[in-house]
Amino acid sequence: MVHLCPPARPGPEWARELQDRIRDFGYSSHGNHNSMSLLRTAELYGSQDASLVEFPATNQPPFRNDADRKYKELVRQLPSQACIDILVQTFFSGINWQYDLLDEESFRERLEAWGMISYSDLQTSFGRLALETLVFPVLLFQVLAHALLFHPPHDKMINSLMTMAGMTFHDLGAEYSDTGAELLALLGKKNIKIAMVQAGLLRASFLKSSGKVVEAWHTLGTTIRDAQEIGLHTGRIISEQSPVEPKRERHNVSLVAHKTWVVLHIWDVHMAVVLGRPIATDFQIDRFSHTIEDDERRRELFSHWQTEIDLPRPFDIILAGYNVAYRYFKDIHQIEQNGTNSQDYPTVERIHATIKNNIQSLPSWCRLGNPDTKFDQLHGCQWLPVAREGLSSLIHLVLLALHRPFIFSVANSRTEAVKAGISILHAQERLFQQSEPHQRKVFNPVYASFDAIVLIAALCLVFPNEDHERRTECINVVERGIQRLDIIGQSNSMAKAAHGVVCSLYLRLRRRLGISETEDARAFFSNSKWISPNIDTDYSNRELSEFSFDAVLPPRPTHDLFFDHISSTQIPLMDPSDGLPLDPLTVDVTDNWNFEGTFSDASFWGVMNELNH
Q1: What is the pTM of this model?
Q2: Cβ pair 333, 281 in contact under 8 A
């Protein structure tokens, strides 16, 4: 034990050393209700001696020798500066707007600083490099990985990075993302920087885009803990506030921190509802926004989305979605945890009415119907048409999730779920049409489409005599959604699995309604006087007499796909006669198409299997 005697007036260096020691014990450096905070108070203000365990001097290298060597090996996997510049441009022109996590000017300044580090600096002066410099490659690898998901194919400069025959940009992106994750783990948790949090969120995004949803959820949880460690949830990043930093730089860090925590929270509650996982964050936007004490700066960040005249920014789309609908994800999560409780239905109706009213208050440039497109072609706003469709898709996904627990017990929820599902699939189709073929390989377009297709097909199957006026549109959007999943599934295994599931549901729907493989389902449904036929009498009567869907849990497609491993048997990948992808309209509907997975017999999927025999 070593006694440390602080000076009569502790300076900033001594204060930072004490902060380091508090963190080493595992205590929060910004909490006020733990034992170490009392010691800190005594040291700083009571001029008392305290006995603390000795820690390494703060100017020592942060890594052991073997970690030093590993770090150097990993950062040498970065491509040439020319390739980096090309991919960074791709990232900021077409990807960063999705979460608006990175400030391009600051990132390029750090990229330039990294480029000035010589080989000898890395070899001989490693321990004297600033931690911000050491952290930068962690973020850079994730930026490069994302860029490779969307970079145009056949770029000769980038193709030079392919080291093996048959290697794709997606393969290289996965390697870069994995390398960035290794670097992040190597840096440890003692001195977390906001760039490490940003890298963690981008890593989760890459995993989700690659169809690794469970891994993405776990990565998100770790990233949330890292963000909380440096105080992002409080609105103040205590560990990175330094009086010697330029005022502009401190302001930028504050804005980035606020945006990062908002995005983390939205990701958290969204995945909790879609995947049926716990919520790890707590967020009240009004209280959080007031951690920015300057009124003008607070309005600049949190109220700019409401303007009609000023140029919209990517974060404005995120805030518009949150204020209109995403803020109710937590309530929806609680309703789902309660099960189909009729006492919760007034809450469902209240939230539904509020969201519909909020939609009407969206500024004209992001209206869900007939938007004002005056900004779309302006410099810096090229992302807006795609972002608007994403906003529409997510807002309607909130409505779909809101009504999902009651679709088998309340007719109004069935109607609203179908309407939300149709809106989702229309938005997803427009997104698909606006994307380039090489951008359709990622799994991102699948999540909302898969949930919507399954819910619409399930409701048409179980309640074939309801919503006659939407029957043709339901079949139309389901068929087109199946076609999109098929295209994405050619290069994405999870999309292929989702495609098999929806094909099976669609085939069951045709069989349920007595539509042969030679008949056009949309023409069949367009007859407004149509009622459910009894062509397959046994099938229909068993459904009506033996199965009550009141006690059946509604399908949660994305959760069921990734956690229950839902799949469908007997779905051929290709039509052997002509080598074309499966067209559900041409398949013999008399075959059995069982669902497989870890679900119970009483689940929706189990009941579907029972009805098939």
Answers
A1: 0.84
A2: no
